[in-house]
From TrEMBL:
The lineage of its organism: Bacteria, Bacillati, Bacillota, Bacilli, Lactobacillales. The keyword Transport does not apply. GO terms for biological process: carbohydrate metabolic process. This is Aldose 1-epimerase family protein. Pfam families: Aldose_epim (PF01263). GO terms for molecular function: carbohydrate binding; isomerase activity. The keyword Lipoprotein does not apply. Transmembrane segments: none annotated. It comes from Lentilactobacillus parabuchneri. It comes from the Bacteria. InterPro entries: Aldose_1/G6P_1-epimerase, Gal_mutarotase_sf_dom, GH-type_carb-bd. Keywords: Plasmid.
Length: 136
């Protein structure tokens, strides 16, 4: 679990899925992220697909690949590549598991930053393949 802080907010991000689990206001400790035992997840990252494809599969260059609903990033452990008091960057690189679903070489970075105004989240997809890289 990674924790970042500003003078007004504290955020907690789980490396598993690069998922924001808590966003607290420091003064009143109010948690802006809905946490309820009815749903195990908090704010999952949806990559490389949002939603569900027909028959949970798609074709690339004539080969069929299965794709879980909302992609696979939420079930992967991200690497912490930068951590400052108010910011953390997490990286998912293509690997044997991701290639079962997605035949591309990529680096997917999610950067969280807390400010006195709230939370900023940036997503960056770096195509490490020679051809086009599809994602939604």
């Amino acid at each position: 679990m990674q924790t970042i802080k500003s003078s007004c907010f504290t955020a907690e991000i789980d490396e598993h899925g690069a998922q924001l689990t808590h966003l607290y206001h420091n003064e009143d400790h109010f948690d802006y992220i809905w946490n309820n035992p009815l749903w195990e997840k908090h704010a999952p990252i949806l990559f490389p697909a949002i939603g569900r494809s027909n028959n949970d599969a798609y074709l690339i260059n004539g080969q069929q690949y299965e794709m879980p609903q909302h992609g696979f990033a939420g079930d992967q452990t991200f690497e912490v590549i930068e951590h400052k008091n108010d910011q953390v960057a997490l990286l998912l690189r293509s690997n044997e598991v991701t290639k079962q679903y997605y035949p591309f070489n990529f680096e997917f970075t999610v950067t969280f930053k807390v400010t006195d105004e709230g939370l900023q989240v940036a997503f960056n997809v770096d195509n490490k393949s020679n051809g086009d890289l599809s994602y939604s």
